[in-house]
């Protein structure tokens, strides 16, 4: 039992403490962007289910691969908050509140939005690339997927989950998230599953770039210039010998 407890603490301890401290310090003020996203998603769900509002929401945040790229890029940010009509909205709201909330506390709101957008954009661009390849080639998609409405926060949720796990070294949880998305694609190979994998690849590249940046920073501090201070102290010490004092 002690071994299991130690493994759980090693896996989730740092992340749990970061979230706990963030909530303790600011309460609900720790996740203002997440709460806004939850409210916006609920509003989009309500409006698109009205007879007068469906086309309005489609014009604002609906993305299809058959549409011009500039239009898809323009709609992609808002498409995160347009829940899929064939899925329960409570699932989307719960995902946003949990994963976006943890990410906002641990990463900051601007980094959370950036990573979520990159993950979503990766899926959107992959759809076009896969359709261009054709379903007969590896990574290709059938032409019919060009008409599939591509909305919802799922790609951003998956991407943020992977990045937070990497940031706090929750390797087992990260492997579970990636493995679940692979299994999802194997069981039901559709556009959504492929986009989730594309989002994971994009976020893993961000993780690699971030790790490289950290190494370069640490290398700057530990490089030749980092030792100049100690060298100076040695020179000062050798050049300012004092005679021994006699008491």
Automatic annotation (TrEMBL):
Chain positions covered by the region annotation Disordered: 218-247
Keywords, comma-separated and alphabetical: Membrane, Transmembrane, Transmembrane helix
Transmembrane segments: 30-47, 87-107, 114-134, 146-165, 170-187, 193-212
Protein name from the UniProt record: Uncharacterized protein
Organism field: Streptomyces indicus
Source taxonomy: Bacteria, Bacillati, Actinomycetota, Actinomycetes, Kitasatosporales
